[in-house]
Amino acid sequence: MSHPMHDDIQEVLYTQEQIQQRVRELGAQLTEDYAGRDLHLVTILKGSLPFLADLMRAIDLPLTVDLMGVSSYAGIHSTGEVRVTMDLDETIEGRHVVIVEDIIDTGNTLSYVLRNLRQRAPASVKIVTFLDKPARRGSPLEADYVGFTIPDDFVIGYGLDWNQRYRNLPYIGILKRDVYAGPL
Ligand code: 5GP
Ligand code: MG
Ligand code: MG
Question: Any keyword Signal (predicted)?
Answer without folding.
Answer: no
